[in-house]
Amino acid sequence: MRYIDMHCDTLAEALAGKADTAYALNGTMLDVKRLSEAGAGAQFFAMFVPQRNEPGWFGLEEMPEAMELVELLYRIYCRTMDECAEIISPARSLADYRANLAAGKLSAFLTVENGYPVAGRMENLEKLAGMGVGLMTLTWNDPNCFGTNHSADPEQMRQGLTDFGKEAVGYMNELGIVVDVSHLSDGGFYDVARYCKRPFVASHSNCRALCGATRNLTDDMIRVLAERGGVSGINFAPGFVNADTSDRYTSVSALCDHVAHFRNVGGEECVGIGTDFDGIRGEFEIGDCTGMHLLFDELHRRGFSDDFIDRFAFGNVERVIGDAMG
Ligand SMILES: [Zn+2]
């Protein structure tokens, strides 16, 4: 069935695999060909920008400067859009997405994971908006010009956005770049809730009540996100799903437990999908995008209404795209 996935790291995998496009990739959890087979409505493609130079990332010997890395990932994205134009088209608004649906095509939304390349300069946000970026995850797992990352250190976790971050969130609202709090500190989350004027998202985060990982949202954060008209995408990473974070297997049942918890705490309109495909390691009952139907089948089996399953699969994210992008 139609679904929208708010996060994948497939562009990074394509770069690491020296692929020209993300049409058909070996050893990945999705590619455009399989998205089409799966019946996806839209896939968000992240341009992931790490700040640390760890060996093996992107298969590059040396990490390029942040904006150069964005350009490398952007080139793969653009080539994919050009070469797969019959089946997928870029979207920067709800109207684009609807036009693609009407043409029988799936939509690609371009995102940035980590605001580091913005480097404290508003004109870099304009540059990203000009490339078609429709969502930005403010931090990854390091502090940057926007704020600081989630952490087991309570003092770091309490830290909010920087002065630049507070102002930039307002500018992102103007530019129609959706603000994404996944990876952000709890203090940063509450600052986004305060300074962001449009609905925001946690593109790939689960429930901390079910899995204590600091990447997940507390019940209070889920309620605030829901009140602000936002949505969180269910992440498939075993370490963000299971109560025992050493368990490396993600079952469909455990994913559905998170869906149910989001609904119970924040209501029917605050939960969607953010698989994190190609950014996660482990063993998976849904090992690639062609298995997504298993998730919807299990929700049906558990007695969730068709109306709720539609909201979860695509409706809630469509609403946020309409309210906060473009
Ligand atoms: Zn991530």
Over all CA atoms, what is the radius of gyration? 18 Å
> Quick one: how many beta strands?
11
Distance between the termini: 26 Å
CATH architecture, by name, is Alpha-Beta Barrel
Taking the sheet with the most strands, its summary is: 6 strands, parallel
| Share of residues in strands | 5-15%
Helix content: 40-55%
> Domains counted in the coordinates: how many?
1
Note poorly predicted spans: none
Determine the structural class based on helices, strands and strand pairing: alpha/beta
Q: Which shape, going by the Cα principal axes?
A: globular
The CATH homologous superfamily is named: Metal-dependent hydrolases
Number of helices: 13
The CATH C-level name is Alpha Beta
CATH topology: TIM Barrel
Which small molecules are bound? zinc ion
Sequence of secondary-structure elements? EHHEHEHEHEHHEHEHEHEHEEHH
Average pLDDT across residues?
97
What features would you describe in this structure?
With 326 residues, this protein is an alpha/beta fold. It has a single domain (4-324), classed as Alpha-Beta Barrel (TIM Barrel). Helices cover 41% and strands 13% of the residues. It has helices at residues 10-16, 32-38, 66-83, 94-102, 122-131, 154-158, 163-175, 186-195, 219-227, 238-241, 252-266, 293-301, 306-324; strands at 4-5, 42-48, 88-90, 106-113, 133-137, 178-180, 201-202, 231-234, 249-250, 271-273, 283-284. Strands 1, 2, 3, 4, 5 and 6 form a six-stranded parallel beta sheet that branches. Strands 7-8-10 form a three-stranded parallel beta sheet. The protein has a two-stranded parallel ribbon with strand order 9-11. β3, α4 (94-102) and β4 (106-113) form a beta-alpha-beta unit. α1 packs across α3. It starts with a strand and ends with a helix. 50% of the residues are buried. The model has no long low-confidence stretch (mean pLDDT 97). The protein binds zinc ion. Zinc ion binds next to loops. Zinc ion binds at residues 113, 182-183, 204, 276, 279.
